[in-house]
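FAQ: What does a multi-protein file look like?

Like this. Sequence, then C-alpha cells, then the next protein.
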Amino acid sequence: MQNNNIISIATPGNARKKTAVPSQWKREKEKRRRHSSTGFPTRPKCEHNNSNQRQYQCKTLTMQDLRRAHQMFYDLPDKIKQDEIILRFVVISPIHRNRSRKDCFEKQVSIKYFMPKLNANGGRENVLVCKKAFTDIFRISKKRVDFVCKNYFKTGQSPKENRGGQRPAPKYEIQREMVKAFILKLKPIESHYCREKNTNRQYLPSEMSISSLYKVFNDTTPGQDVKYDFFRSIFCTDFNIGFGSPATDCCSLCISLTQKIKVTRCLIEKRELSTKLEVHKKKADAFYKLLQNENDGEITFSFDCQKNLVLPKVPDQSAYYSRQLYLYNFTVCQGTSKSKQLKENTFMYLWLETDYKKGSNEIASFVYHCLKNTNLMNIHTIRLFSDGCGGQNKNQVMLFMLSKFLQECPSHIKNVNYFYPIVGHSFIPPDRIFGRLEKQFKKIACMTSINDYLKIFETVGTVINVSSTNVCKVYDWKSSCLNILKPPANWHFKFAPTKRILLSKSKQNNVLVRGEPHYYLNVGQERGLCKRGKTLTSMKLNVLNKGVQNIKTAKKTDVDNLLKKHFGCDWRNLPDLEYYKTVINMDNEENNEQDYESDFGDINEENAEFD
C-alpha cells in the first residue's frame, strides 16, 4: 500500500492519463498467436538406416524430453526469443567440400541439430538429431531454421527486432528524470471523503495546477527549461495525481484543533491538541470500519435525506431570491459501503412539500416500510447507519419504531443495532447516490414537475412515489411514542453522546435497549424504555392524512411571480403546471410550521465530546 505522505510513481495502467498498452493491440495479439504453439509435439518417425545417419539419436528421446523442449520453446511467444533458442541447439560451420547438385543449389553452411535429453544421472545432455526431427518437435518450418542460421553465420550477431522503437527517448532522459524528481518532492494532502476503492489516487492542494507547477519548475531549474507539453506528459503518464477541490463539508472540530495546533507555541499544549485530534479521527475511522464489514447472518442499511429539491427549477435569475416549493427525497441503501450500488438495493422515497412534512414521523415510516418489505430470511441481526440529525434520525420516535418492528418481526431476528457517526464524519452510501443525482440535475435547465425528477431517479434506484401511491403509509409514531415511552431524560443512558444503540428481544418477547458511547466497548445495561404499565403491544398507530400541509402566502406569491416571468401571465392555462395552480388556490394558514432538518443535536454532541 502506498504512503500517502509522499508522492509515488504510478504503476502501469494506474496513471492520471490512460497510456497505450501495446500488448493489448490487435496486431500484437495476432503476433503472439502466430508464434504460439499450434499443437503437441510428435514423436520422430525417421528411420536412419543409412550408415551415415546412424549417428542420429532421434529415437532415444522420450515423450517427456519432447514435451520439455516444446514447452521451453513456446514459453514466451516472441519470435526473437524463439530464434535465440534455435541458435542454442544448432552448430553452424562452413562447408568443407562442395558437391555438384542436380537442382543447382549451392550449399552455404553446414548445420548440426541437437535436442536436450535427460540422462541416467538426472542431468541434461544434448543429443544429435536430424533436421526433420528438430523441426517436428518445435513445430516450425525448415525455411525459418535455415534463415536464422544463415543470417547468424553471416553477421555473427543474435537476432534482433529492427522495426519500431522510440529512438529519440534517450536524448531527453536527463530532463525527464529532473521533472520526475521535482514532482516527487511535492507533498500530497489528505483527500476529503475519498473512496477506499481509489487507493492509487493522490491529491495536491486545490490552488495548484499543472501550469503553475510547470512555471515553478522552470524558475527553479535555470538552463534546463522544458516545454509545457513535455512536463504535462510526464505528470499525467507517470503519476496518478489530482488536484483537490476546496472542502465545503469539513468537520468543525478537526478544523478548530488543526488551527490551534498551528498557532500554539507551547509544546505541551500542542501535544495535547494533537492527541485530541488523533483520537477524534480514530473514532471516525471506527465508524467507517463498521460500515465496511458485514458478518454472516447480518444485513446492513444506511439512510439519509437529500437536500430539498426545488419546484419549479428554472434558469431565471429571480429564482435565486424567490421562495419555491420543495420535493423531498429519502434514500435507503442496502449493503455495506463496499457494496455495489444497484437499482435493486437502492430505495428512494419521494414526496412533495404539500403532502407530508419532513420530520421524524415520515422518516420512521419509510424505514419501517423498507424493513417490512425486505427479505430477512436467515438474518439474525439488522444493522442501521445514519447521521445524528435530531429532528429525523436520532430521536425517540425512531427507537420507538425499531422497538415495534423488532417485537413483531420473525423470531429468528434477534437484534437491531443502530450506529451514529462522529459529528463531521458522516459520509455514508446515500451521499454517493445524491452526488450521482445532482450531476444529472445540473445538466437539465428546467424541471417543472415531479415527473421530470422521477425520470432521473429511476435511472439510479427503485423509486417509491409516496405522493401518488398508497404503497407506503405514513404513521403518527410521535403521538404513540409520547404515550408509551419514557422521556429521554429518564432513560438509563444518556442519549446525546450515544454512538451505538442495541435493541434485543428478551425471553418474554420484550424489547430491551442498550446505549453505548463507544463503537466497540460495552459498558451499558439492557433495559426497557416503556413507562410503567405500558407495553408496545398496546399501542395504536394512526395513519396521517396526505395533502393537509398548507403553504404560506409569501411562498405562493413568489412561485406565482416566478412562473409569470418564465411562462408568461397565462401560465395557468398550461396543462403541465396544473400542480402549481392547485397549490396557489389552497387555503392559507400563516402559522404553519414545517419540521425542517435540524443539526442542533449534532452541535451539542460535538461540544460535549471531550468534556
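And here is the next protein:
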Amino acid sequence: MLQKEEECKITHSLQMMSNLEDLLKSNIVCDFLINIGKSSFPAHKAVLAACSEYFRSILAEGIDQGVIYINGVSPDAMEQCIRFMYSGEADISISNMESILNAADLFRIEALMDLCYDFIRNNLTPSNCLNIRNMVVIFENRKFRETVDRFIVDKMDEVVETDTFKELQKQDMKYFLKMWRSTQRGSSAPARELRSATHTPRIFLSSKSRSLIGSAKSCKSPMTKVQIDKRELKPKDSLLWKGVVSWVSHDPSQRVTEFLELLRFIKVTRFTINFLSTTVWNEVMVSENTSVKEFIAAKVLTNIGEVKASLNIRNCLNIFSIVTTFCTEFYDRYLKTVVGFMSAHLKQIKTRPEIESWRLDEFCLFFNTCDCSLLEESDMWDTALTWLQADKDREADFLDVLKVLHMEDFSPKFVICSILKVKAVRSSADSVKYISDVVFKDPRHIIWNTTVDTCFTLKYLSRKYKNTAFARVDKELVSFFVTNFLKVIEHPEFANITFEELQLLGKILRKRNVHGEATWIAVMKWVRYDPDLRRRHMLSLLKIINFERLTTKFLKDTVRSEILVTKSSECHHFVMTEVYNKLP
C-alpha cells in the first residue's frame, strides 16, 4: 500500500512538472517576465518561488509590475535555469558550465549547482583542472574544491606539463607545488592545511590557455572518490623538480633568476644524492648557472658516507666533477672514494657522454689517482678515445694523454692493433716518437706483433718517421709483405701503398720467381684505385711482373685485353712482345 502511494506521488509530481512545462511553452497563465538584455523569459511566479530562494525573497516583497531586469547573467544561462526549474534538466556543456553555475549560485538553485559540479567532476583533465579550480573557488564550495585539489594532486605529473601550469604566476605555481608536497606526508595535517589555506589562486591566463577547459568535452572519466586526509602517498622529489623546471623553462629569460629561490622552496636539499647528481645536475639550467651548481654541490658533498653509498654507474662521473670543482673539505677522501668506484667500473662508464665534458686536468687527475696497473688497457684506451674524439681541438693533447696512461705498461700488440690504428695518433710526430721510445725499445716487438691488418699502418709509420723504431724495421716489414703477399693484396689498405713500395715488392717477387698472376692482380688493383693519376706508372709496373710465370692463355685473354693496356701504345707493345716471346 505504501509503495503504491509513493509511486502515485512520483507519477503525480512528474505529471505536474510536465504540465507546468507545457503551460510555459504555450505561454499560458504566465504571470512574470524576466528581462536580460534584449531577451525576455516568461515564467510563473509560483514555480520561480518554489525553486529559487532568490526569486522567493523578491516575490515575497511584492512586484506589482510582474517584470524584473537582471544583469550579470547570460541569456543562455537564464534559459537553462528556467528549464531546470520546470523539468529538472539542463543542457550543460564545457562552454556554458561556468555561466550556468554562476547563475545557479546567484539564484540559489542548489540542485542545479550540484548538477554542474557533477558535470565538472566527470570532465576534469590535467589540461583544464587549474582553470576549473580557479572557477570553483569563486563559489566557496570547500568540498568540491577539495575534490579538484585531489585530482590536481593525483595528476600533478601531467599538470606541470600543461600550458596552464607554465603560465601561472610564481606565487600560484608555488601554491600548487606546496599543496602537492603537503599531501605526500601521509597525515591529516595536509588536508587541514588545504581546507584552511588563505591563498586561493586567481589565475589570469591567455585566451588560448582558458580554451583548454574545452578540451575535455568528450572526456568522461569520473574521478575516484578518495578522502584526501586519509590518503598516504610516497614523496616524489622528481615531480617537484619537474614542476619547477617546466615553469622556469617556459620563459627562461624572465624566470631563470627565480630558479635558485624555487629550488630552496621545494627543499631540493632533501632530495637523494643520486637524484641530485643525475637528473638535477644534468639539467641545462643547472649546468649554466654557477650559483645553482654550488648550491647543489654543497648538498652532494655533505656526508662522505652518503656519497659512497649513493655511487652508481649513472652518477659517479658527475660526482667526480662535483668533487674536482667544488670540494674544499676532505678533498682527498672524496676523490679517493669516487675514483676507486670509477676504476672498478671503468668498463661500464668508459663511453659515457659525461667523460666528453671533462677538462684535461680532470682526465689526467683520474688516471693519476687510480691504480692503472689494475685496469685493462682496452678500457683505459676507450676512455681516452671517448674524451679525445669529443673535441677535435684535443688532438693537441694526445701526447699528454699517452703519458698519463702509462704507455710503457701497454702490450706492444695492443699498441699496434688499437692505438696506432687511430689516425690522429699516427699524424702526431710527438706521439709516435713517444710510443716508439717507451713501447718499442726493442724494435723486434714490432715484427713479432705484425699482422696483415696492421702491416700497412706500420709501413706508413716507417716511411713517415725515420728516427723511430718503425723505420729501423722497414726491411723486416717489406719481408712480411712479400711472405704474406696473397693476403696483403686482398686488404682494402693495399691500394694506399706508394708506387715505390709496390715497385719494390714486385721486383722482389720477380727475383724470387713467384706470384706472376698475383703480381698482375696487385698492379691492376693499385692502378684502378686512381686510374687518372696512376696510369702513368703502368709501363713501369708491367716490367716488374714475372711474365714467365704467366700462361699464354692468361696473357692473351686477360693481360692483352685489359683496357689500360690497349689504350697505351707503349704498354700494348710491351705486352705483345711478351706474348710473342711465349710462343713456341
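Q: Is there any per-entry metadata?
A: Some entries carry free-text notes. For the entry above: Confidence is low (pLDDT under 50) at residues 186-235.
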